[in-house]
Amino acid sequence: MQNSIDALKREFDCDIQNAKDLKYIEEIKLKYLSKKGPIQQLMKELKDVPSEKRPECGKWINDLKVAITEQVELLHTRFIEEEEANLLKNETIDITLPGKRRFFGRKHIITQVLDELLNIFSENGFSVQYGPDIDSDYYNFEALNFSHDHPARDMQDTFYLSPGMLLRTHTSNIQARIMETEKPPIRIVAPGRAYRNETITARSHVFFHQIEGFFVDRGVTFADLRATMDAFLAKFFGKDVETRFRPSYFPFVEPGLELDIRCLNCAGAGCQLCKQTGWLEILGAGMIHPEVLKNGDIDPEVFSGFAFGLGVERLVLLKYGIKDIRLFTENDLRFLKQWTSG
Ligand code: FA5
């Protein structure tokens, strides 16, 4: 047994002297210390050694195993350190190179104005709610008093996605939803996109943003609607703007009206933006129709309310003297960079 141990030790000493790299040392580790290696083999042969010699032989084998393990680990660590040092030596970092430039995003002008408008309404006690862009015919039309064959449906050319499902034509689709979840007093604004299959012009697009306002309580009158509109316009434009209410028809309000602003682009003289009329329509509004309140399980004998839907792009056109609504969606940075504060 002792001869075998000595022979193994000599063989190992010889092998380890030739160790030059990590790969080699890993092979040596496998050769001597694996389960099928010579050390384990000697352990197995211990059972054939006379019992009085067995403890002594066991100790020799163990001492050899510890010595081999220590040397292998030592070289293993050294080769790893050498490899890392070589890697670092070959890696060059030029700290004088300019860093990577980070581009900061900015809010689109429409988003900035939406935020501003929502702030104004929040200050006046309106909370913000959101309705879906894709909705059913029921919420977009039927619950708002547009029966299936109602001629007013033609006022809003609709993108249908499947029978009964559509891209909402206005943010008024929030009205029936909100009455399903809240009971009066209700005072909400709902911002979002609206979609219409219309011809694109300087003042109209196939998609645009609206803010719906919906206010129901006891004793709400037309005077409340007017006061709310006046307060928001004064705050938004920061100056007196000339307005006019025109009677209009929407099946879900009675009476209904549209609010025009004296065109700020041409000071009322007439231009492409206001279609030479001197006025630009910015919102539709009215007192909520009793049928709509009933659809929402609210008693019109007890409660009344007003609603409005304002066109955000139109307000931005007016406030900043922008002549064409198409500029908002063309992604021309020369245009968008003019509003970088958001
Ligand atoms: C409506 O959409 C009604 N839902 C508004 C309403 C709400 C009335 C609550 C009564 C009560 P109208 O189609 O007029 O109404 O659109 C409202 C505003 O959205 C318009 O005044 C205009 O500012 C804007 N708008 C409408 N169509 C377009 C379009 N194609 N492009 C850009 N803005 C538009």
Q: Overall pLDDT, averaged? A: 91
Strand content: 15-25%
The low-confidence parts are none
Name given to the CATH homologous superfamily of the largest domain: Bira Bifunctional Protein, Domain 2
User: How many helical elements?
Assistant: 11
Query: In angstroms, what separates the terminal alpha carbons?
Result: 85 Å
Q: Can you write the helix and strand succession as a string? A: HHHHHEEHEEHEEHEEEHEHH
Radius of gyration: 41 Å
Total number of distinct structural domains: 2
Largest sheet: 7 strands, mixed
> Residue share in helices?
25-40%
The coarse overall form would be elongated
What is the CATH architecture descriptor of the largest domain?
A: 2-Layer Sandwich
Total DSSP E strands: 10
Q: Ions, cofactors, ligands: which are bound?
A: adenosine-5'-[phenylalaninyl-phosphate]
Derived structural class: alpha+beta
Q: Write down the CATH topology of the largest domain.
A: BirA Bifunctional Protein, domain 2
CATH class value of the largest domain: Alpha Beta
Report on this structure.
The chain is α+β, with helices and mostly antiparallel strands. The protein folds into two domains: 89 residues; 228 residues, BirA Bifunctional Protein, domain 2 (2-Layer Sandwich). 39% of the residues lie in helices and 19% in strands. The chain has eleven helices and ten strands. The strands form two sheets. The protein has a seven-stranded mixed sheet with strand order 1-5-6-10-9-8-7, with helices on both faces. Helix 2 packs antiparallel against helix 4. The longest helix is centred in the first third of the chain and has 37 residues. The protein starts with a helix and ends in a 6-residue tail after the last helix. The model has no long low-confidence stretch (mean pLDDT 91). Bound molecules: adenosine-5'-[phenylalaninyl-phosphate] (FA5). Adenosine-5'-[phenylalaninyl-phosphate] (FA5) binds next to strand 6, strand 8, strand 9, strand 10 and helix 10.
